[in-house]
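Key idea: predict the complex, not the pieces.
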Amino acid sequence: MYVRTRWHLAMAAVGIGLVGWLVWAVRYEPPPWPVLLADLIAVIGLAIVPWLVIVGRQLVRVREGERLMSRVVVFVAIFAVAGPVLGMLALRMFGQDDSMVALALGMMSMAAAGVIALVGGVLTPGLVLLARTVARERSARVRAEERAEVAAHLHDSVLQALTLIQKRADDSRSVRQLARSTERELRVWLYGAAPSAAGEDLAAAVRAVCEEIEDRFDVAVELVAVGTCPLDEPALAVVGAVREALTNAGKHAGVRQVSAFVEAADGELLALVRDRGRGFDPGLVPADRRGIADSIEARIRQHGGTAQVRSAAGAGVEVELRVAR
Amino acid sequence: MRVFVVDDHAVVRSGVRAELAGTAEVIGEAADVAGAVDGIRRLRPEVVLLDVHLPGGGGRAVLNAVAAELPQTRFLALSVSDAAEDVIAVIRGGARGYVTKAISGPDLCEAVRRVHAGDAYFSPRLAGFVLDAFRRVPAEDLGLDPELDQLTRREREVLRLVAAGFTYKEVGAKLSISARTVETHAASVLRKLQLSNRQELTRWASRHWP
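Result:
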């Protein structure tokens, strides 16, 4: 049942009035004990509960505040009920002679309930609300900073690229190039796989080669790299041979997609490059065309590895490199 | 084949719908976890194309909600993400394959067909992730179960060729085994991927969905 705040305030006013009457009655003309008891309970109900409800409404969305408030309510109830009950018991046991002792006991307990209600009801909500405001301000500031950073980054990369793409819409090659390089950049930023500077390790060097090929020849290189190793002599040979294989694919295959796989296993470097393009008949390659022989096979053999180039007209090209290390 | 598409981008959903036309019938779509769970329960599709990143808990939440009660429904994960942990987590949640959104139309149809038939479908990227996850220390050194925590030499070879962009048929031809045998190897890799307790796998899976 929802009761409006102003009714709570009215009830609280009645409660405070009753407190005044109670003090006057106990001082000058003590009423019989059942009336006293009823009055005590009414005072608690009217002077304390409305106040707690009003404050509780402010805190209902803050779990911590809710918990604190419910504890306050429990303590208040215990003291408020225990006081009169103890008073009545004392009244029964010692008879009317000690009625002042019994009353004092009850009133002290009641007063404790009031103090707890006031302290708990006034200080707790204040503290909780203060803490909440501070936390909210901090997280709002953090969010604003993050948003500014994201906005700055998107502006520098994606927004610029989209503008350029609109301007050059009829030049499909440069549009693809822009889209690819922006995608690469965004991926690095989103997934944090920042490629270490080329020249550090095998995977990064091959990735750099693939990006260079993508930009030069308007092909997409789907690279899968497993493991990595420092760029020693054999690794450098593999990178060079992969570059040559990808260059051939970009120049001659006539397709938009090339696959590359590079694995640095414990004892061996393995690289596979393949396209589904035009292909060529190895038997018909003129002897003076040295690209494959020099740049791929010789390079790999120099490091004790094997290089195989398989192709047939119309069947694409497949380059397999293996070097022990 | 009755296919259900879950992706938060309408452009992707309509693209998938167009690419699958003629191969499969798209019987429903959803853009978030709640919608997906609802639709899948109601329509009981044979294959669900499931985006890895979804509002409301990700593809993993959908799998957790419906995979156990609908054993006939197969899941194929779909994503632009490069993050290995996301992909591995969805596979461990019950998806039978993973493709990137850059996949060509015919390849997507092939992937859906394979998953529908109960096979595993590895994109080159997933094959790379799996090789990476099972690389490193041999399982017996860590007291792990070699049956589940290690790939056989043959499985490794198959995955390498898949990672290099070969189709199952081409892999079979290159290794002089039948395409059916390649499928068997892929299925056994999928089983290991889902059941292994290997640290790399559990770490990846738990980092994103604790």
